[in-house]
Amino acid sequence: MIDTTNKNILFVTHKRSQCGIYEYGGKITDVLTHSTAYHFIRAECASMDDLHQAIDTHKPALIIYNYHPSVLPWLATKLAPSFYKNNISSINIPQIGIIHEITQQISDTATGYGKKYFPGQITRLSNTLFDYYIAPDPTLLLQNPLVYKTGRLIPSYTNHFPAPEKPVIGSFGFGTPKKGFGKIVELVHKEFDEATIRFNIPSSDFADKDGKAAREIEDSCKAMLTKPGIDLVITHQFQDEKTMLDFLAQNTINVFLYEDTAGRGLSSTVDNAMAVQRPIAVSGSSMFRHILSVEPSVCVDRNSLKEIINNGFAPLQDLYDEWNAANLLWEYDRIVGSVLNRYQKPSVYKMGIVRTLQSRWNRFFSFPDKSFTWLRNSTKANDDDMRVDRSQQYSPVEIPAGSVLNRILDNTARELYRPAIEKLVKLVPVTMAKKIAEANVQQAFVFDTVMRFMPQYSDPKLLCVGSYEDTASMGLTKMGYVVEEIDPMLNYYLQEYYTKPSVKKNSYDIIFSTSVIEHDPDDESFIKCIEGLLAPGGVAVITCDYKDGWKPGDLKPEVDARFYTQDDLRSRLLNLMPSCRLVDEPQWDCEFPDFRYQDKYQYTFATFVVQKNK
């Protein structure tokens, strides 16, 4: 059993060196030292002996490793019993690895160990390094219960340098292959007659210690200069963070044209470049996938350098606001608390062991373990469903006299909202094809109702709760609307999101959620969060599985925590939202539900549309 009073968390990284992994670990621990929930202790280790000494000194409740095989090569398990005491298999406290070179496939197939935290229970299950993983990749789908993710960390910096009068195109990075420095020179020559190109290409202790590769890149780039108005300045000294940020801050634009296209983690160069709030241009490399979806695009495959410069930093502003120290500290506190909680309660621990065993089985057959999520359980829609098309238009259906928005979504509603269903099929055909046709009336109602209320707000702020493969959210995004999305497959549960430092209460004009609330074991905290997030005058549009007269113990799908009744909607939920009111007098009578699921469950869908008082 884990000692619940022990708040010591050991953060293990390698000895000081000139490498991005070391720099990342330093930035993270600088943030973690401000935690009030735990005592994070940084330990620079070069061997198992160093690690055991740190454990003996600090007696941590949990260990986090800033891991990459090239910088912690000694950190490995051995299958042979004779080596048991000389590797991390012998450390009987939870261990988490930060995996920098993360991909979706690696995340989906990662396995962990079961450990002897309780007498008589099993020890480690395989030769996998860690029990859990942290991926600093906000694009990751959370399809494996052993994998957590965080946003990025943008250093705090105030740019006091004036923008250059003559274009200055900057970049930096170690002299490792496929960094695309030559491509930057080519692109600048293509677009500019006068400009200065500035590169900082230091040597790396792990990849180019003697600096030979960096010098070869310099010679190659200089040989490419053909225009007299274009200057090239290349430096090779390793710069500390302040010097590097000053370097980036003095450029008109910072450009990174990596040639890697797959199988790599995210590049940390963007974190530093965003800190100075100058325009950024990138290639379409998967190492920049976390910023490739911003609009207007910062990818040189879609916009020229001049266009990206003219657009300024605005396309990246929301991400800049999100990836700050306060949010990252919240993420780590949340992750550590979640892992420790699994071992403080035997029932939770045993559930974790079952999931670990299932994860190992799935890894063998290359299937991701998705059992942890109660929201969505299908593959991600292809990219064609998510390409923005602002030419798309939609007018809400005409509501017949006597009809209301708080209603049953039955066959009559399916006919009424047929235009919305057809529009969603046109907007996101791949995802709509996966859905149960009779249930699409919910998505259609939500899409139509959000569009109906949109004109009431000058610049509506939208939030979708349970957004993974939510076609209403996808359709709105496809039309060019900005929708903030939360979903445990993508990031958080609603209740977690509500506590995030950057989340602004009383700020969302429209919050919508399609068939999510009935899956939440704690729907009362769910509905309270909705009320707390709504702006004065804001509207919440919610649909739910409904069967009037249902009571706990009655038949329901296993994935549902409950069916809703008139009493739930009229009294229980509404009473939890004292500042909200129903937008109309509801019509929730339904004697004969017309939706049948798995030939076993007969029920229907209801809508719950409320507005917050101004």
Strand and helix map with partners:
Layout: E1 8-13, H1 20-32, E2 39-44, H2 48-58, E3 62-67, E4 95-99, H3 104-109, E5 132-135, E6 147-149, E7 168-172, H4 181-191, E8 195-200, H5 212-223, E9 230-235, H6 241-249, E10 253-256, H7 269-275, E11 280-282, H8 305-311, H9 317-322, H10 325-344, H11 346-364, H12 411-416, H13 418-427, H14 429-432, H15 440-453, E12 462-465, H16 471-478, E13 483-486, H17 494-498, E14 508-514, H18 523-533, E15 534-546, H19 566-575, E16 580-582, E17 595-597, E18 601-612
Care to describe what's here?
The chain is built from 19 helices and 18 strands. The chain is α/β, with parallel strands linked by helices and 614 residues long. It has three domains: 8-153 and 327-364, Rossmann fold; 168-316, Glycogen Phosphorylase B (Rossmann fold), CATH 3.40.50; 383-612, Rossmann fold (3-Layer(aba) Sandwich). Strands 12, 13, 14, 15, 16, 17 and 18 form a seven-stranded mixed beta sheet that branches. Strands 2-1-3-4-5-6 form a six-stranded parallel beta sheet, with helices on both faces. The longest helix has 20 residues, at 325-344. The protein is globular, with a radius of gyration of 27 Å.
